[in-house]
Amino acid sequence: MQINKLWLIPAALLVAGGIAFAATRSTPPADLDYSLSHRSDEGLYQVTLVPSIDPVPVGKMHAWLVEVTDSEGQLVEAEIALDGGMPQHGHGLPTVPQVTGKDHHGRHIVGGMRFNMPGWWVLNVDIDGSAGADTATFNLAL
Amino acid sequence: MSRTLALVSTAAILLVATGGILASRGGTYDWTEQERQRIASLSLSSLPALPPDPSNAVADDPAAAALGRDLFFDTRLSANGEVACASCHLPDRQFQDGTPLGHGIGETTRRTMPIAGTAYSPWLFWDGRADSQWAQALGPLENPVEHGSNRKDVVEVVSANYRDEFTKVFGQAPDEMPLDMAFASVGKAIAAFERTILPERSRFDAYADAVAAGEGSDALAEQEVEGLRLFIGKAECLNCHNGPLLTDNDFHNTGVPAVRSLPTDTGRAEGAQTVQLDPFNCLGSFSDAAPEQCAELTFMKASGEELVRAFKTPSLRQVAQRAPFMHAGQIVSLAEVVAHYNSAPHASAGHSELVPLNLTQEEQDALVAFLQALDGDGQQRAEP
What we know:
The structure holds 2 protein chains of 2 kinds. Chain A is mainly beta. Chain A is built from 2 helices and 9 strands, in the order ααβββββββββ. Chain A has helices at 2-6, 8-23, and strands at 37-39, 46-51, 62-69, 78-86, 91-92, 98-102, 108-113, 120-129, 132-141. Chain A has a 5-stranded antiparallel β-sheet with strand order 1-2-3-7-6, with no helix packed on it. In chain A, strand 4 (78-86) and strand 5 form a beta hairpin. Chain B has a two-stranded antiparallel sheet with strand order 1-2. The radius of gyration of chain B is 24 Å and the shape is elongated.
Protein backbone atom coordinates (compact mmCIF):
# COMPACT_ATOMS: atom_id res chain seq x y z
CA MET A 1 0.00 0.00 0.00
CA GLN A 2 2.80 2.35 0.90
CA ILE A 3 4.59 1.54 -2.34
CA ASN A 4 1.42 2.26 -4.38
CA LYS A 5 1.11 5.66 -2.70
CA LEU A 6 4.64 6.53 -3.82
CA TRP A 7 3.36 6.53 -7.41
CA LEU A 8 1.11 9.44 -6.47
CA ILE A 9 4.19 11.71 -6.42
CA PRO A 10 5.18 11.48 -10.12
CA ALA A 11 1.49 11.32 -11.09
CA ALA A 12 0.75 14.51 -9.15
CA LEU A 13 3.79 16.23 -10.65
CA LEU A 14 2.64 15.38 -14.17
CA VAL A 15 -0.92 16.59 -13.49
CA ALA A 16 0.34 19.82 -11.89
CA GLY A 17 2.70 20.40 -14.81
CA GLY A 18 -0.10 19.78 -17.29
CA ILE A 19 -2.40 22.25 -15.53
CA ALA A 20 0.34 24.89 -15.38
CA PHE A 21 1.03 24.39 -19.08
CA ALA A 22 -2.66 24.58 -20.05
CA ALA A 23 -3.13 27.68 -17.89
CA THR A 24 -0.73 29.68 -20.05
CA ARG A 25 -3.35 29.71 -22.84
CA SER A 26 -0.51 30.13 -25.26
CA THR A 27 -0.78 26.72 -26.83
CA PRO A 28 -3.87 25.81 -28.86
CA PRO A 29 -4.85 22.15 -29.41
CA ALA A 30 -2.22 20.37 -31.45
CA ASP A 31 -4.52 18.83 -34.07
CA LEU A 32 -6.18 21.99 -35.44
CA ASP A 33 -6.85 22.24 -39.17
CA TYR A 34 -5.55 25.61 -40.35
CA SER A 35 -6.60 25.23 -43.99
CA LEU A 36 -8.67 28.09 -45.35
CA SER A 37 -10.60 25.90 -47.80
CA HIS A 38 -12.69 22.94 -46.74
CA ARG A 39 -16.16 21.43 -46.53
CA SER A 40 -18.74 22.97 -44.26
CA ASP A 41 -19.52 21.08 -41.04
CA GLU A 42 -22.41 19.08 -42.57
CA GLY A 43 -20.60 18.73 -45.88
CA LEU A 44 -23.12 20.78 -47.88
CA TYR A 45 -20.68 23.32 -49.30
CA GLN A 46 -17.02 23.87 -50.08
CA VAL A 47 -16.00 27.16 -48.46
CA THR A 48 -12.81 29.05 -49.25
CA LEU A 49 -11.56 32.10 -47.35
CA VAL A 50 -9.08 34.59 -48.77
CA PRO A 51 -7.79 37.39 -46.51
CA SER A 52 -7.07 40.65 -48.34
CA ILE A 53 -3.83 40.97 -46.39
CA ASP A 54 -1.52 37.97 -46.17
CA PRO A 55 -0.10 37.23 -43.64
CA VAL A 56 -3.17 38.24 -41.70
CA PRO A 57 -2.27 41.26 -39.56
CA VAL A 58 -3.00 41.90 -35.89
CA GLY A 59 -4.64 45.25 -35.29
CA LYS A 60 -5.45 46.33 -38.84
CA MET A 61 -8.96 46.40 -40.25
CA HIS A 62 -9.25 44.62 -43.58
CA ALA A 63 -11.61 42.58 -45.77
CA TRP A 64 -11.86 38.88 -46.50
CA LEU A 65 -13.28 37.08 -49.54
CA VAL A 66 -15.57 34.10 -49.00
CA GLU A 67 -16.25 31.66 -51.84
CA VAL A 68 -19.06 29.12 -51.50
CA THR A 69 -19.26 26.31 -54.08
CA ASP A 70 -20.97 22.93 -54.44
CA SER A 71 -19.12 19.62 -54.72
CA GLU A 72 -18.62 20.27 -58.45
CA GLY A 73 -16.87 23.53 -57.75
CA GLN A 74 -19.77 25.62 -59.06
CA LEU A 75 -20.53 28.86 -57.22
CA VAL A 76 -23.59 28.59 -55.01
CA GLU A 77 -26.04 31.44 -54.47
CA ALA A 78 -26.06 31.82 -50.72
CA GLU A 79 -26.47 34.26 -47.89
CA ILE A 80 -23.46 34.20 -45.63
CA ALA A 81 -22.44 35.70 -42.31
CA LEU A 82 -19.00 35.61 -40.74
CA ASP A 83 -18.22 35.69 -37.04
CA GLY A 84 -15.40 34.52 -34.87
CA GLY A 85 -13.53 34.68 -31.61
CA MET A 86 -10.82 33.29 -29.39
CA PRO A 87 -11.90 30.06 -27.67
CA GLN A 88 -9.14 30.29 -25.06
CA HIS A 89 -10.12 33.83 -24.10
CA GLY A 90 -13.90 33.57 -24.30
CA HIS A 91 -14.32 36.64 -26.47
CA GLY A 92 -15.41 37.31 -30.01
CA LEU A 93 -14.02 39.52 -32.73
CA PRO A 94 -13.56 43.15 -31.70
CA THR A 95 -15.67 44.20 -34.70
CA VAL A 96 -18.89 43.08 -36.38
CA PRO A 97 -17.86 42.09 -39.91
CA GLN A 98 -20.49 42.43 -42.63
CA VAL A 99 -20.91 41.33 -46.22
CA THR A 100 -20.42 44.47 -48.29
CA GLY A 101 -20.85 42.98 -51.79
CA LYS A 102 -19.30 40.53 -54.23
CA ASP A 103 -16.14 40.64 -56.31
CA HIS A 104 -16.08 39.88 -60.04
CA HIS A 105 -15.49 36.18 -59.30
CA GLY A 106 -18.76 36.03 -57.35
CA ARG A 107 -17.00 35.81 -54.00
CA HIS A 108 -18.59 37.52 -51.01
CA ILE A 109 -16.62 40.48 -49.71
CA VAL A 110 -16.68 40.65 -45.91
CA GLY A 111 -15.56 44.01 -44.54
CA GLY A 112 -14.66 45.02 -41.02
CA MET A 113 -12.39 42.11 -40.10
CA ARG A 114 -9.89 42.85 -37.37
CA PHE A 115 -7.96 40.65 -34.98
CA ASN A 116 -6.71 42.50 -31.94
CA MET A 117 -4.57 39.77 -30.39
CA PRO A 118 -2.02 37.22 -31.50
CA GLY A 119 -3.00 33.61 -30.85
CA TRP A 120 -5.62 31.08 -31.89
CA TRP A 121 -8.74 32.47 -33.55
CA VAL A 122 -11.78 30.59 -34.86
CA LEU A 123 -13.89 31.89 -37.74
CA ASN A 124 -17.41 30.64 -38.39
CA VAL A 125 -19.08 31.16 -41.75
CA ASP A 126 -22.83 30.61 -41.62
CA ILE A 127 -24.18 29.69 -45.05
CA ASP A 128 -27.80 29.68 -46.12
CA GLY A 129 -27.95 28.42 -49.70
CA SER A 130 -29.86 26.12 -52.08
CA ALA A 131 -28.60 22.98 -50.31
CA GLY A 132 -29.70 24.27 -46.91
CA ALA A 133 -28.10 25.91 -43.90
CA ASP A 134 -24.63 24.91 -42.79
CA THR A 135 -21.62 26.36 -41.04
CA ALA A 136 -17.97 26.19 -42.00
CA THR A 137 -15.40 26.51 -39.23
CA PHE A 138 -11.83 27.73 -39.70
CA ASN A 139 -8.81 28.12 -37.44
CA LEU A 140 -6.23 30.87 -37.62
CA ALA A 141 -2.93 31.20 -35.81
CA LEU A 142 -1.76 34.80 -35.54
CA MET B 1 11.43 -2.54 -7.62
CA SER B 2 8.21 -0.64 -7.98
CA ARG B 3 9.33 1.72 -5.23
CA THR B 4 12.62 2.38 -7.02
CA LEU B 5 10.80 3.01 -10.29
CA ALA B 6 8.47 5.53 -8.64
CA LEU B 7 11.36 7.40 -7.09
CA VAL B 8 13.35 7.35 -10.33
CA SER B 9 10.31 8.67 -12.22
CA THR B 10 9.94 11.49 -9.70
CA ALA B 11 13.59 12.39 -10.00
CA ALA B 12 13.41 12.30 -13.81
CA ILE B 13 10.37 14.60 -13.95
CA LEU B 14 11.96 17.08 -11.55
CA LEU B 15 15.19 17.02 -13.55
CA VAL B 16 13.43 17.67 -16.86
CA ALA B 17 11.29 20.42 -15.34
CA THR B 18 14.29 22.10 -13.72
CA GLY B 19 16.27 21.84 -16.93
CA GLY B 20 13.41 23.43 -18.86
CA ILE B 21 13.14 26.33 -16.43
CA LEU B 22 16.90 26.91 -16.46
CA ALA B 23 17.07 26.72 -20.26
CA SER B 24 14.31 29.30 -20.58
CA ARG B 25 16.21 31.65 -18.28
CA GLY B 26 19.59 31.36 -19.91
CA GLY B 27 21.52 34.58 -19.55
CA THR B 28 22.32 34.83 -23.25
CA TYR B 29 18.72 35.09 -24.43
CA ASP B 30 18.79 33.44 -27.75
CA TRP B 31 15.41 34.71 -28.84
CA THR B 32 13.39 32.35 -31.00
CA GLU B 33 12.27 33.62 -34.40
CA GLN B 34 8.74 34.15 -33.05
CA GLU B 35 10.08 36.10 -30.09
CA ARG B 36 12.27 38.20 -32.38
CA GLN B 37 9.26 39.05 -34.52
CA ARG B 38 7.21 39.93 -31.48
CA ILE B 39 9.92 42.18 -30.08
CA ALA B 40 10.40 43.91 -33.45
CA SER B 41 6.63 44.47 -33.72
CA LEU B 42 6.72 46.49 -30.48
CA SER B 43 9.49 48.88 -31.54
CA LEU B 44 8.64 52.47 -32.40
CA SER B 45 10.60 51.79 -35.59
CA SER B 46 7.62 49.63 -36.63
CA LEU B 47 5.18 52.51 -36.17
CA PRO B 48 3.67 53.40 -39.55
CA ALA B 49 3.29 57.01 -40.72
CA LEU B 50 0.41 58.89 -39.11
CA PRO B 51 -2.83 57.52 -40.53
CA PRO B 52 -4.90 60.16 -42.32
CA ASP B 53 -8.02 61.43 -40.57
CA PRO B 54 -10.47 61.78 -43.44
CA SER B 55 -13.08 63.17 -41.04
CA ASN B 56 -10.88 66.23 -40.43
CA ALA B 57 -9.95 68.11 -43.62
CA VAL B 58 -7.49 70.34 -41.72
CA ALA B 59 -5.84 67.55 -39.73
CA ASP B 60 -2.47 68.06 -41.40
CA ASP B 61 -2.65 71.83 -41.91
CA PRO B 62 0.13 73.50 -39.86
CA ALA B 63 -1.98 76.68 -39.54
CA ALA B 64 -4.76 74.59 -38.01
CA ALA B 65 -2.28 72.97 -35.62
CA ALA B 66 -0.97 76.40 -34.59
CA LEU B 67 -4.52 77.60 -33.91
CA GLY B 68 -5.27 74.35 -32.09
CA ARG B 69 -2.21 74.77 -29.89
CA ASP B 70 -3.39 78.24 -28.83
CA LEU B 71 -6.89 76.94 -28.13
CA PHE B 72 -5.48 74.01 -26.16
CA PHE B 73 -3.88 76.38 -23.66
CA ASP B 74 -6.66 79.00 -23.56
CA THR B 75 -8.52 79.11 -20.24
CA ARG B 76 -11.13 81.46 -21.71
CA LEU B 77 -12.76 78.36 -23.19
CA SER B 78 -14.33 77.57 -19.82
CA ALA B 79 -17.21 78.74 -17.66
CA ASN B 80 -14.95 80.23 -14.97
CA GLY B 81 -12.10 81.33 -17.24
CA GLU B 82 -9.67 79.07 -15.41
CA VAL B 83 -9.79 75.74 -17.23
CA ALA B 84 -7.98 74.89 -20.47
CA CYS B 85 -7.35 71.50 -22.08
CA ALA B 86 -3.82 71.89 -20.69
CA SER B 87 -5.16 72.18 -17.13
CA CYS B 88 -5.52 68.39 -16.99
CA HIS B 89 -3.42 67.47 -20.04
CA LEU B 90 -0.17 68.94 -18.70
CA PRO B 91 2.49 69.17 -21.43
CA ASP B 92 5.35 68.46 -19.03
CA ARG B 93 3.59 65.39 -17.62
CA GLN B 94 2.82 63.53 -20.83
CA PHE B 95 -0.36 65.59 -21.20
CA GLN B 96 -1.96 64.00 -18.12
CA ASP B 97 -2.25 65.16 -14.51
CA GLY B 98 -1.04 62.38 -12.24
CA THR B 99 -4.22 62.28 -10.16
CA PRO B 100 -6.81 59.46 -9.94
CA LEU B 101 -9.57 61.68 -11.36
CA GLY B 102 -9.42 64.81 -13.52
CA HIS B 103 -10.10 68.20 -11.96
CA GLY B 104 -11.65 70.94 -14.06
CA ILE B 105 -14.45 73.08 -12.71
CA GLY B 106 -15.39 70.02 -10.70
CA GLU B 107 -14.10 66.47 -10.42
CA THR B 108 -14.50 63.98 -13.27
CA THR B 109 -15.27 60.30 -12.83
CA ARG B 110 -12.25 59.00 -14.74
CA ARG B 111 -8.46 59.31 -15.00
CA THR B 112 -7.12 61.93 -17.43
CA MET B 113 -5.65 60.13 -20.45
CA PRO B 114 -2.31 61.04 -22.05
CA ILE B 115 -2.36 62.29 -25.66
CA ALA B 116 0.78 60.93 -27.35
CA GLY B 117 -0.06 58.68 -30.27
CA THR B 118 -3.83 59.03 -29.98
CA ALA B 119 -3.94 59.95 -33.67
CA TYR B 120 -3.40 56.22 -34.24
CA SER B 121 -6.46 55.23 -32.23
CA PRO B 122 -9.88 54.77 -33.80
CA TRP B 123 -11.50 55.38 -30.42
CA LEU B 124 -10.92 58.09 -27.84
CA PHE B 125 -11.79 58.27 -24.12
CA TRP B 126 -11.61 55.24 -21.80
CA ASP B 127 -14.95 54.06 -23.22
CA GLY B 128 -14.35 55.05 -26.85
CA ARG B 129 -17.34 57.38 -26.92
CA ALA B 130 -15.62 59.55 -29.56
CA ASP B 131 -14.25 58.24 -32.83
CA SER B 132 -11.77 61.01 -33.68
CA GLN B 133 -9.45 63.37 -31.87
CA TRP B 134 -11.63 66.31 -32.89
CA ALA B 135 -14.86 64.75 -31.64
CA GLN B 136 -13.05 63.94 -28.40
CA ALA B 137 -11.82 67.50 -27.96
CA LEU B 138 -15.40 68.81 -28.00
CA GLY B 139 -16.59 66.67 -25.08
CA PRO B 140 -14.73 68.32 -22.18
CA LEU B 141 -15.60 71.84 -23.41
CA GLU B 142 -19.27 71.20 -22.65
CA ASN B 143 -18.83 68.85 -19.71
CA PRO B 144 -20.09 70.64 -16.57
CA VAL B 145 -17.21 69.32 -14.42
CA GLU B 146 -14.46 69.99 -16.98
CA HIS B 147 -14.59 73.29 -18.93
CA GLY B 148 -18.27 73.76 -18.08
CA SER B 149 -18.76 75.91 -21.17
CA ASN B 150 -21.14 75.53 -24.10
CA ARG B 151 -20.70 75.68 -27.85
CA LYS B 152 -22.19 79.14 -28.18
CA ASP B 153 -19.76 80.63 -25.65
CA VAL B 154 -16.83 78.69 -27.10
CA VAL B 155 -17.52 79.98 -30.61
CA GLU B 156 -17.91 83.53 -29.27
CA VAL B 157 -14.48 83.35 -27.57
CA VAL B 158 -12.91 81.98 -30.74
CA SER B 159 -14.69 84.60 -32.85
CA ALA B 160 -13.48 87.43 -30.61
CA ASN B 161 -9.88 86.25 -30.22
CA TYR B 162 -8.93 84.01 -33.15
CA ARG B 163 -11.10 85.34 -35.96
CA ASP B 164 -8.33 85.77 -38.53
CA GLU B 165 -6.53 82.51 -37.73
CA PHE B 166 -9.80 80.58 -37.82
CA THR B 167 -10.92 82.18 -41.08
CA LYS B 168 -7.58 81.44 -42.71
CA VAL B 169 -7.90 77.75 -41.84
CA PHE B 170 -11.61 77.16 -42.42
CA GLY B 171 -12.41 79.75 -45.10
CA GLN B 172 -15.17 81.37 -43.03
CA ALA B 173 -15.29 83.28 -39.77
CA PRO B 174 -16.67 81.33 -36.78
CA ASP B 175 -19.75 83.54 -36.46
CA GLU B 176 -20.51 83.21 -40.17
CA MET B 177 -20.86 79.45 -39.92
CA PRO B 178 -23.73 77.46 -38.45
CA LEU B 179 -22.98 77.17 -34.71
CA ASP B 180 -22.41 73.39 -34.69
CA MET B 181 -20.11 73.65 -37.71
CA ALA B 182 -18.02 76.33 -36.00
CA PHE B 183 -17.91 74.25 -32.81
CA ALA B 184 -16.80 71.16 -34.78
CA SER B 185 -14.10 73.28 -36.43
CA VAL B 186 -12.74 74.28 -33.01
CA GLY B 187 -12.33 70.56 -32.30
CA LYS B 188 -10.66 69.99 -35.66
CA ALA B 189 -8.06 72.69 -34.96
CA ILE B 190 -7.31 71.25 -31.51
CA ALA B 191 -7.02 67.80 -33.12
CA ALA B 192 -4.56 69.11 -35.70
CA PHE B 193 -2.34 70.15 -32.78
CA GLU B 194 -2.85 66.89 -30.87
CA ARG B 195 -1.89 64.88 -33.94
CA THR B 196 1.62 66.24 -33.61
CA ILE B 197 2.04 64.77 -30.11
CA LEU B 198 3.85 61.47 -30.51
CA PRO B 199 5.51 59.04 -28.10
CA GLU B 200 9.19 59.27 -27.28
CA ARG B 201 11.74 56.58 -28.01
CA SER B 202 12.86 54.43 -25.11
CA ARG B 203 15.77 52.16 -24.22
CA PHE B 204 13.50 49.27 -25.15
CA ASP B 205 13.31 50.56 -28.73
CA ALA B 206 17.10 50.57 -29.03
CA TYR B 207 17.14 46.99 -27.73
CA ALA B 208 14.29 45.88 -30.01
CA ASP B 209 15.91 47.36 -33.10
CA ALA B 210 19.13 45.51 -32.29
CA VAL B 211 17.25 42.23 -31.78
CA ALA B 212 15.38 42.77 -35.05
CA ALA B 213 18.71 43.29 -36.81
CA GLY B 214 20.09 40.12 -35.25
CA GLU B 215 22.59 42.12 -33.19
CA GLY B 216 23.44 42.12 -29.51
CA SER B 217 22.49 45.08 -27.31
CA ASP B 218 23.20 46.24 -23.79
CA ALA B 219 20.39 48.79 -23.89
CA LEU B 220 18.42 46.69 -21.40
CA ALA B 221 19.70 45.22 -18.14
CA GLU B 222 19.33 41.51 -17.50
CA GLN B 223 16.24 41.90 -15.32
CA GLU B 224 14.59 44.10 -17.95
CA VAL B 225 15.29 41.51 -20.65
CA GLU B 226 13.71 38.88 -18.40
CA GLY B 227 10.70 41.17 -18.04
CA LEU B 228 10.49 41.52 -21.82
CA ARG B 229 10.60 37.74 -22.19
CA LEU B 230 7.66 37.45 -19.81
CA PHE B 231 5.85 40.38 -21.44
CA ILE B 232 5.79 38.65 -24.84
CA GLY B 233 5.27 35.20 -23.34
CA LYS B 234 4.03 33.79 -20.06
CA ALA B 235 2.56 37.04 -18.71
CA GLU B 236 0.35 37.39 -21.82
CA CYS B 237 0.69 41.19 -21.81
CA LEU B 238 0.97 41.09 -25.59
CA ASN B 239 -2.63 39.95 -25.89
CA CYS B 240 -3.77 43.55 -25.45
CA HIS B 241 -0.58 45.63 -25.28
CA ASN B 242 0.59 44.89 -28.80
CA GLY B 243 1.97 46.93 -31.68
CA PRO B 244 4.51 49.80 -31.43
CA LEU B 245 2.23 51.81 -29.13
CA LEU B 246 1.76 48.78 -26.86
CA THR B 247 -2.01 48.94 -27.16
CA ASP B 248 -4.57 47.22 -29.35
CA ASN B 249 -6.73 50.36 -29.03
CA ASP B 250 -9.58 48.09 -28.06
CA PHE B 251 -11.65 47.55 -24.92
CA HIS B 252 -11.26 44.87 -22.28
CA ASN B 253 -12.72 43.97 -18.93
CA THR B 254 -9.72 43.15 -16.75
CA GLY B 255 -11.53 43.03 -13.43
CA VAL B 256 -10.34 46.45 -12.32
CA PRO B 257 -12.36 47.19 -9.17
CA ALA B 258 -15.15 49.75 -9.29
CA VAL B 259 -14.72 52.86 -7.16
CA ARG B 260 -17.55 52.87 -4.60
CA SER B 261 -17.87 56.62 -4.42
CA LEU B 262 -18.34 56.94 -8.20
CA PRO B 263 -21.49 56.30 -10.23
CA THR B 264 -21.85 52.89 -11.91
CA ASP B 265 -19.48 52.78 -14.86
CA THR B 266 -20.25 50.25 -17.61
CA GLY B 267 -17.32 51.40 -19.75
CA ARG B 268 -17.48 50.49 -23.43
CA ALA B 269 -21.06 49.18 -23.11
CA GLU B 270 -22.25 52.77 -22.75
CA GLY B 271 -19.45 54.31 -24.82
CA ALA B 272 -20.44 52.24 -27.86
CA GLN B 273 -24.02 53.50 -27.63
CA THR B 274 -22.87 57.09 -27.15
CA VAL B 275 -20.51 57.20 -30.13
CA GLN B 276 -23.22 55.89 -32.47
CA LEU B 277 -25.49 58.76 -31.46
CA ASP B 278 -22.75 61.42 -31.45
CA PRO B 279 -23.59 64.09 -34.08
CA PHE B 280 -19.85 64.71 -34.35
CA ASN B 281 -18.96 61.11 -35.29
CA CYS B 282 -17.38 60.06 -38.59
CA LEU B 283 -20.75 59.50 -40.27
CA GLY B 284 -22.27 62.77 -39.01
CA SER B 285 -22.89 65.98 -40.95
CA PHE B 286 -19.81 67.73 -39.55
CA SER B 287 -17.40 65.01 -40.60
CA ASP B 288 -15.35 65.56 -43.77
CA ALA B 289 -15.21 61.82 -44.47
CA ALA B 290 -17.19 59.87 -47.04
CA PRO B 291 -19.28 57.14 -45.38
CA GLU B 292 -17.05 54.38 -46.77
CA GLN B 293 -14.12 55.98 -44.93
CA CYS B 294 -15.85 55.36 -41.60
CA ALA B 295 -15.09 51.65 -41.38
CA GLU B 296 -14.44 51.67 -37.64
CA LEU B 297 -17.87 53.07 -36.86
CA THR B 298 -19.58 51.01 -39.55
CA PHE B 299 -18.22 47.69 -38.29
CA MET B 300 -18.19 48.60 -34.61
CA LYS B 301 -19.29 46.09 -31.99
CA ALA B 302 -22.16 47.96 -30.35
CA SER B 303 -23.49 45.51 -27.79
CA GLY B 304 -22.75 42.35 -25.89
CA GLU B 305 -21.57 41.16 -22.49
CA GLU B 306 -17.93 41.62 -23.51
CA LEU B 307 -18.40 45.40 -23.52
CA VAL B 308 -19.58 45.63 -19.91
CA ARG B 309 -16.89 47.32 -17.82
CA ALA B 310 -14.50 47.02 -20.74
CA PHE B 311 -12.12 49.97 -20.88
CA LYS B 312 -9.62 51.04 -23.49
CA THR B 313 -6.19 49.45 -23.39
CA PRO B 314 -3.80 52.31 -22.61
CA SER B 315 -0.44 52.61 -24.33
CA LEU B 316 2.36 51.46 -22.03
CA ARG B 317 4.90 53.88 -23.47
CA GLN B 318 6.33 55.97 -20.62
CA VAL B 319 3.78 54.30 -18.35
CA ALA B 320 6.06 54.25 -15.30
CA GLN B 321 5.77 58.04 -15.05
CA ARG B 322 1.97 57.98 -15.14
CA ALA B 323 0.82 56.72 -11.76
CA PRO B 324 -1.86 56.21 -10.59
CA PHE B 325 -3.07 53.57 -13.01
CA MET B 326 -6.33 52.28 -14.51
CA HIS B 327 -9.41 54.20 -15.67
CA ALA B 328 -10.11 55.82 -12.32
CA GLY B 329 -6.59 55.71 -10.92
CA GLN B 330 -7.54 52.75 -8.74
CA ILE B 331 -4.02 51.25 -8.51
CA VAL B 332 -1.16 53.37 -7.26
CA SER B 333 1.97 51.46 -8.32
CA LEU B 334 3.16 49.37 -11.25
CA ALA B 335 4.02 46.55 -8.86
CA GLU B 336 0.38 46.45 -7.76
CA VAL B 337 -0.81 46.60 -11.37
CA VAL B 338 1.30 43.55 -12.21
CA ALA B 339 0.05 41.82 -9.04
CA HIS B 340 -3.52 42.55 -10.21
CA TYR B 341 -2.93 40.84 -13.55
CA ASN B 342 -1.18 37.98 -11.79
CA SER B 343 -4.06 37.28 -9.43
CA ALA B 344 -6.83 37.96 -11.99
CA PRO B 345 -9.67 38.94 -9.63
CA HIS B 346 -13.28 38.58 -10.73
CA ALA B 347 -14.92 41.62 -12.29
CA SER B 348 -17.47 43.59 -10.29
CA ALA B 349 -19.72 43.46 -13.39
CA GLY B 350 -19.34 41.71 -16.73
CA HIS B 351 -16.58 39.12 -17.07
CA SER B 352 -12.86 39.65 -16.67
CA GLU B 353 -10.77 38.32 -19.54
CA LEU B 354 -7.87 37.59 -17.19
CA VAL B 355 -6.67 34.21 -15.94
CA PRO B 356 -4.19 33.82 -13.07
CA LEU B 357 -0.63 33.95 -14.39
CA ASN B 358 1.23 32.13 -11.60
CA LEU B 359 4.14 34.57 -11.79
CA THR B 360 6.72 34.43 -9.02
CA GLN B 361 7.62 37.62 -7.16
CA GLU B 362 10.90 37.66 -9.07
CA GLU B 363 9.03 37.49 -12.37
CA GLN B 364 6.67 40.27 -11.33
CA ASP B 365 9.65 42.43 -10.38
CA ALA B 366 11.18 41.75 -13.80
CA LEU B 367 7.98 42.88 -15.53
CA VAL B 368 8.00 46.12 -13.56
CA ALA B 369 11.65 46.64 -14.51
CA PHE B 370 10.78 46.14 -18.17
CA LEU B 371 7.88 48.60 -17.97
CA GLN B 372 10.29 51.18 -16.54
CA ALA B 373 12.53 50.66 -19.57
CA LEU B 374 9.71 52.14 -21.66
CA ASP B 375 10.44 55.60 -20.24
CA GLY B 376 11.00 58.23 -22.93
CA ASP B 377 14.28 59.81 -23.93
CA GLY B 378 12.93 63.32 -23.43
CA GLN B 379 12.96 64.04 -27.14
CA GLN B 380 9.48 64.76 -28.46
CA ARG B 381 9.34 62.77 -31.66
CA ALA B 382 8.67 64.34 -35.01
CA GLU B 383 6.24 62.51 -37.25
CA PRO B 384 7.84 59.28 -38.53
